[in-house]
């Protein structure tokens, strides 16, 4: 058997034998408008992105996110408000034919048509022209989207009750006398686990907003409110229960 017999040498034309210099391709139809993707174009993109990222970080430091009070799932009067970039959709759902019985139109059909049209824009206007006057379909669709978004966002801002919004989410420190005898009874029972250490509510409702009398509170402590609160949850004496109920009533009055 001869040396090398049966061996085959395979070459791959995709692997260059010599490293070529970083010279952009020749696009004669676009003189002076082409450059190497790496590192020229990509480096500039990274620099612009870094500037925006630093600016965004500085903005978050200068203006921290506003926090509201702890969410209360039992509060049916609370009106949620989305972030500013969703206000146009929020405003859209206020109109007659995009809400109520027509919610599907406002949440699925209209946004689906809008975003679907933007996704299809490259196929609807495939021309090579870059001047806006030569691309009426793409430019028209983009202008319609931008104007609609700005208009709906503006309408949402000017028609929203911002005073009510600030008041309903305002963080208010509860005025609770933790040295009172009633609070000592409250903290010694299972009440604190459901209603919070300041009666602000947790898994159970807030007691700071109750309008019940001391007798009603005593009745609830004994009989419970199925299934959320079991009967005989209070394990102290009747005298302690009386003091606890009176403490809750007085605390709720002080926080109104």
UniProtKB/TrEMBL annotation:
The keyword Acetylation does not apply. Its main location: membrane. One of its GO terms (cellular component) is membrane. It is a multi-pass membrane protein. The chain crosses the membrane at residues 46-63, 102-124, 136-154. Keywords: Electron transport, Heme, Iron, Membrane, Metal-binding, Transmembrane, Transmembrane helix, Transport. It is found in: Membrane. It comes from the Bacteria. One of its GO terms (molecular function) is iron ion binding. Residues 177-252 form the Cytochrome c domain. The keyword Transmembrane applies. Heme c binds at residues 191, 194-195. Belongs to the cytochrome b family. Component of the menaquinol:cytochrome c reductase complex. The main subunits of the menaquinol:cytochrome c complex are a Rieske-type iron-sulfur protein (QcrA), a cytochrome b (QcrB) and a cytochrome c (QcrC). This is Menaquinol:cytochrome c reductase cytochrome c subunit. It comes from Exobacillus caeni. The lineage of its organism: Bacteria, Bacillati, Bacillota, Bacilli, Bacillales.
